[in-house]
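Hey team,

Filing this mostly as a record. A colleague (T.K.) asked me to run one chain through the structure pipeline before their review meeting, and I want the input and output archived in the tracker in case anyone asks later how it was produced. No errors, nothing strange. Just documentation.

Input sequence:
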Amino acid sequence: MKILVMYRPKSSIKPEDFMPLQGKQAGEVFKLMGEGAIREAYSFDGHTGGAYIMEADSVDAARETLQRLPFIERDMFDVSFEGLMPYRGFFAVAQAMG
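Output structure:
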């Protein structure tokens, strides 16, 4: 199952709080990409935070996997998880085409 994960720093976290963990965070994201758990990683344009496209059995499994990331493990982000499915509109078009 594909899962969209969006994250933003909590308002109580100062930018300098991230600095000591930045390298470890990047290394863990890289490892999860190598394992196929994170398929794509993005930063937001113009503000802090970002998004991952993940592959996992469930949203709960994705949530558990991301606990390996220092920023998430230390509760520094507000994180949302959304399961994704193929766009339903294509099915309507395919049926209409016969």
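Quick notes for T.K.: The first helix runs from residue 15 to 18. The first strand starts at residue 2 and ends at 9.
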